[in-house]
Amino acid sequence: MNPLFLAVDVPPISHVTIWGNGPLGLNKTIIIYGLATLATILVFLLGTSKKKLVPSGIFQNTAESGVAFVRNQVILSTMGPEGLPYLPYLTALFFFIFFSNITEILPAVQFPANARFAMPMTLALATWVIFNVVGVVKQGPGHYLKNSLIPPGVPSFLLVLVVPIEFISTFLVRPFSLMVRLFANMLAGHLILVTFATLTAALFAKSFTIVIFPFSFALLVAMTGFEILVSFLQAFIFAILTAVYIGGSMHPEH
Amino acid sequence: MALLHLLAQAAVDNNKGLTAIGRGIVYGGAAIGPGIGIGLVVGNAITAMARQPESAGTVRTIMFLGIAFTEALALFGFVLAFIISG
User: Fold this and answer.
1) Which long-range contacts (CB under 8 A, 24 or more apart) does A10-13 make?
2) Helix, strand or coil for residue A109?
3) With contacts defined as CB-CB under 8 Å, which chain A residues touch B61?
4) What pLDDT, in 10s, does the model give residues A19-62?
5) Predicted local distance difference test score (pLDDT) of residue A3
6) Res B12: pLDDT
7) For residue A232, what are the contacts with CB-CB under 8 A and spacing of at least 6?
8) Which residue of B has its CA nearest to A233?
9) A209 CB near a chain B CB, below 8 Å?
10) B13: number of Cβ within 10 Å
11) What is the ipTM for the molecules in this complex?
C-alpha cells in the first residue's frame, strides 16, 4: 500500500454520510471498495479473455470455479433451475463481498470494508428491491402481497395477529437482518483480531509477561485463519439468503 | 451549590457505569438463546450427515442457512450494545 492509503482515515462507525479526509473526500472503506470492485472485474475480464477448454492460469480457474460454486451451491440447491437467470447478480455479489471482506487479514490493510454499514445496507436494499420486484412481476401485486402476508393453513381469527408479524418479518426484518449479519460479523471479527494483536504486542515486553505471550500469539494466528473462513462464509450466506428470498417470491408456498 | 455540583458529577459517573453494565447485559442476554440454537442446528446437522453421508452436501447448505437465521438474533444484541449510550 502506498503512503496515501495509510494517511487516510478509517471512518467512525457513526459516520455514514460524512466525507473522509483523503483527496476527493475518500476514506479507507471507499478505497477498499474500489479495489474490491476492480478485483471482481479483473477476475472475470482476465478469466474470460483467453478462454481455454482446459482452464489454465489463476484468473480462469478462479472465475470458473466461482461461477460453478454459485451455480451449484447457491442457486440449484435453493431455487432450482428456474433461478439460473440470477446467476450474474449472485456471482457478482459473492465475489464483491468476499473481496471486500478478505482485506480483514490482508497485511497492511487489515480492515474489512464491510465493518461499516453503508455498503451492507446498500446491498441489502438492492436484494430487497429485487425480491419484491420479482414477486410482483411473477405473481402480480395482489397475489404477491397475499402469499407473503398470509401463511397457508392459518385459521381466520388468527389473521389479526399473523398478518402484522408476517409483514414485519418479510418486509422490514429481512433487509435489516441481511445488513446487520454482514456488518456485525465483520466488525466482531475485526475487534477480536485487534484485541489479540494489541494484547500480543503488550505482552511482548522485557518482563514476566513474556511467559503468557505465546498463548496470545497462537490465538491471534488461529483467529486469523478463522476470519478467512468467516469472510468466505459471510459472502456465501449473503448470496444464499438473497437466492432464498428471490426463490420464495418466485414460488409461493401453497 | 458545591454539593449539588458534586451530586450531579456523581450522577453522570454513575450513568457511565450503568451504561457499561447495560451493554454487557444486553449482549450477554442476546447471546444465550442463539448459542443454544446454533448448538442444536449444528448438532442435528451432524447427526443427519452421520446417518446419511450421501446427503451431506444438502445438509451443509441448509445448516449454514439455519445458522445464519439463528445468529442474526445474537448480532442484533451486538449492534444494540453499540447503540446504547448513556
Assistant:
1) A10/A111, A11/A116, A13/A116, A13/A117, A13/A187, A13/B82
2) coil
3) 73, 77-78, 240
4) 777 677 778 888 889 999 999 999 999 888 877 777 777 888 88
5) 55
6) 67
7) A98, A101, A102
8) B64
9) no
10) 10
11) 0.74
A194: number of Cβ within 10 Å = 12
Q: Which residue of B has its CA nearest to A179?
A: B72
The dihedral formed by the CA atoms of A47, A89, B58 and B75, expressed in degrees to the nearest 10? 110
**Contact: A78, B72; criterion CB under 8 Å:** no
CB within 8 Å of chain B, chain A residues 13-42: 13
Q: Say if the Cβ atoms of A181 and B78 lie within 8 Å.
A: no
Q: Does A183 touch chain B (CB under 8 A)?
A: yes
Residues in chain A: 254
Comparing A233 with B85, the larger pLDDT belongs to A233
For chain A, the first-to-last Cα distance in angstroms comes to 54
CB atoms closer than 10 angstroms to residue A107: 6
Distance CA B38, CA B26 (A): 19
Cell 409461493: give the residue.
A252
Give yes or no for residue A1 having a pLDDT over 50. no
pTM confidence score: 0.86
| Minimal-distance CA residue of chain B relative to A76 | B58
Extract the C-alpha cell encoding A173: 426484518
* Interchain CB contact of A169 with B (< 8 Å): no
A-chain residues near B76 (CB < 8 A): 177, 180
- Angle value at C-alpha A146, between A247 and A79, nearest 5 degrees: 5
pLDDT above 90 for A154:
no
Question: Closest Cα to residue A166, out of A248, A79, A82, A77?
Answer: A248
Q: Which three cell numbers stand for residue B47?
A: 447427526
Ranked by mean pLDDT, the top range of A238-252, B9-23, B39-53 is: B39-53
Q: Report residue A185 as a C-alpha cell.
A: 460479523
| CA dihedral over A156, A161, A164, A168, signed as positive or negative | negative
Rounded mean pLDDT of chain A? 87
